[in-house]
Amino acid sequence: RDRADIQAERSVFCEQVGQLDAKDLVLLDESGITTAMTRLHARAPRGKRAHGSAPGGWRRLSVLGALSGEGMIAAMSIPAATTTRVFVAFLQQVLIPELRRRHPGATVLMDNLSAHKPKQVESALTVAGFKLLYPPRYSPDLSPIEPAWSKLKNALRTTKARTRDALETALLPALDSITPADARGWFNHCGYSFLN
Q: Which residues pair with 26 in a beta bridge?
């Protein structure tokens, strides 16, 4: 029964989003990064061992971000979990001003995290003139921001930032590594067609 419900939700969502211009879609999500991030693979001469390490006692940052076909258009990091209060602050202080400037007709898509669901989240966006749409449950394949997080984390693993300050410093170049071509490719892959 639940599988049928999810399939029905996906059909409705795909029909709704299919009526929108992909250039007006902005995907919103959070991800965690840590000071223990290190490359997952290494190379060494034949017969030699590749050495690396990840420290204990690591520190974590939550990164809130918004992805459009232009790339990552807004982001904020905080050394705490994403609560409704944190999320509304991100909307009001970071995202909405950027949407007004770059995407005045945006439809914002965000997953079903409990911090995204309170009425003040919807109110903050709709009062500012933006539409809100929630993708169906269990549908990360419909979210172009998921591969963006993967690219960002790969860039951060390479830097091996071992302090919170170093992680914050490495975050901006990692965000900038997400190009418009990347974003449009991920949107196309998830079914939100960019024609060029």
A: 108
pLDDT per residue as tens digits for the range 86-133: 999 999 999 999 999 999 999 999 998 999 999 999 999 999 999 999
Degrees to nearest 5, angle at CA 59 with 53 and 62? 120
3-class SS letters over the chain: CHHHHHHHHHHHHHHHHHCCCHHHEEEEEEEEEECCCCCCCCCCCCCCCCCCCCCCCCCEEEEEEEEECCEEEEEEEECCCCCHHHHHHHHHHHHHHHHHHHCCCCEEEECCCHHHCCHHHHHHHHHCCCEEECCCCCCHHHCCHHHHHHHHHHHHHHHCCCCHHHHHHHHHHHHHCCCHHHHHHHHHHCCCCCCC
User: Could you tell me which residues are beta bridge partners of residue 29?
Assistant: 65
Dist CA 171 CA 152 (whole Å): 8
Q: Are 137 and 56 in contact (CB under 8 A)?
A: no
- What phi, psi does 34 have (nearest 5°)? -135, 165
